Amino acid sequence: MEVRVLKYFLAIAREGSITGAANFLHLTQPTLTRQIQDLEKELGQKLLIRGKHKVSLTAEGMILRKRAEEIVQMVEKTEEEFKSISEVVSGDIYIGSGETDSMKYIAEVMKDMQIDYPNVKFHIFSGNAEDVIEKLDKGLFDFGVLIQPIDLSKYDNITLPSRDVWGVIMKSDSPLAGKKSVVLEDLVNVPLITSRQMSKKYSADSGFLDWFGQYFDNLNIVATYNLVYNAAIMVRAGMGYAITLDKLINTSRSDGLIFKPLEPKLSSGLDIVWKKYQVFSPAGRIFLERLRKKFS
Question: Where is the domain boundary, 86, 114, 142?
């Protein structure tokens, strides 16, 4: 057995399909299929149950997955230990993140790591959960920072020690500006600017469906956004009230905007996630170790 082929097998086990694994590995599907067929012949066992759109592991396949993980991890650890003897840790770490004030905690880890490893560079890409997950699954991001709740079946994760509060950004001279907080009745008849997360497709998972209850389907949503900076521009233009997280834009009265929290309170936790069985570069592995040390 070759370690390379074991990695191919683990990619299929993780992705749940040969097509998905082939895309992740940058191989053609026929090439990957042939490699796995050769592995099955070598072991004399059927490893995969092939369905129309996905594959699952046989009992023998599950045994091999456990052994393959141990073998691959040991080989990679040995290689990295020898590389570290003579090489300076360098490289790029790619992080996709939704907009959140809690990113400041991760930035602290990044700053400390760059002091010790100045040749490591971080690349941050902002987007909503759908965008981040798509690129994370394709291997374009090493890590994702996502607002809960999240389907973690394909990921390992670390939960950040803070929660973001949902509320409404409005013009400082709006009729709701004098209120301490915003209640449901304040929002049912006003123009709303909402994130795509608040769309009907995601509402049951994000908590908005429960918060708005029977009024959800009749909300007057006039625009949607995926980056709150653009939502703030629409609020300043007088288009409506933006439902978003606190501390993402300047909401001082001198800027013409203010933030009011929802009442009853609606908040969301955050997770740093990465793909299960992810093979990290030395820089990525050190960064993960430091994240675990700070947040676990």
Answer: 86
Cα 70 to Cα 82: distance, rounded to the nearest angstrom: 19
For residue 216 the two structure tokens come to 């959800």
Global pTM reads 0.66
Joined together, the tokens standing for residue 229 give: 């900076």
Instruction: Please give the residue range of the domain that contains residue 17.
Output: 3-86
Are 68 and 50 found together in one domain?
Answer: yes
Q: Are residues 137 and 209 in the same domain?
A: no
207-264 pLDDT tens trace: 777 788 888 888 999 999 988 889 999 999 999 999 999 988 877 666 789 999 999 9
* Encoded amino acid at 256, one letter: G
